[in-house]
Design brief:
There is one protein chain. By secondary structure, the chain is of the alpha/beta class. The chain has 7 helices and 7 strands. It has a 7-stranded parallel beta sheet, sandwiched between helices. Strand 3, helix 3 and strand 4 form a beta-alpha-beta unit. The model has no long low-confidence stretch (mean pLDDT 91). Bound molecules: magnesium ion. The site of magnesium ion has 6 residues, from loops.
């Protein structure tokens, strides 16, 4: 029952994704959530860092990028159009419909794509249920809508389980500030004590 909530990989941000590895594994397109995965949920336009990353993903690696978002079509269109990205919205994740539409509309098999998302109960559950591998991205910001807040609570339980089972291995290339590291070690200790 829990397995469908487990991502294949965990990264701190999209910028930590090993694109070379995806290429080697035959990935042709990147399907991705928008809010809190690519940018904070209240950010309307792509920051420069994201624009250059997308440019590298498209032009250097040749990956197609398709946004699959539960947000309304208007928000997603305004974000995606200036970047020339395809999108499916509202996708109604975790239902399979949006993922399947992305695959059929753009002509990909589930094994030829990966999904990037920040939520276990929408992104990960939905993509896994149609056989798409998921890379979990830590949410860009911690603030969220009310529904998401409840999901985050449930997610914490699943994350604890994944940590216990040794499934959770975070890829993070950016060097942490020593102080942040200390805080993380402390919170891990607290987790263990509970
Ligand atoms: Mg999201």
């Amino acid at each position: 029952m829990f397995k469908r909530l487990y991502p294949k990989h965990f990264v701190a941000s999209i910028y930590d994704i090993d694109l070379e590895m995806l290429k080697r594994n035959g990935v042709k397109a990147i399907l991705t959530d928008l809010d809190n995965t690519l940018v904070a949920w209240d950010i309307a336009d792509a920051p420069d860092e994201l624009v250059s990353w997308l440019d590298m993903v498209n032009n250097q690696y040749g990956f197609d990028v398709i946004i699959v978002s539960n947000n309304n079509g208007d928000r997603v269109k305004k974000f995606a159009d200036p970047l020339g990205l395809h999108y499916i919205a509202p996708a109604r994740k975790p239902l399979p419909i949006g993922f399947k539409r992305a695959l059929t509309e753009f002509g990909y098999h589930a094994k030829e794509v990966v999904f990037l998302g920040d939520q276990l109960f929408t992104d990960v559950l939905g993509a896994n249920s149609v056989g798409i591998e998921v890379i979990h991205v830590q949410p860009v910001v911690k603030t969220d809508g009310v529904v998401t807040k409840f999901n985050r609570l449930m997610e914490r339980l699943v994350f604890r389980r994944m940590k216990r089972k040794g499934i959770y291995k975070l890829t993070q290339r950016v060097k942490e500030e020593p102080e942040t590291e200390k805080r993380q070690v402390e919170s891990l200790r607290q987790d263990k004590q509970q």
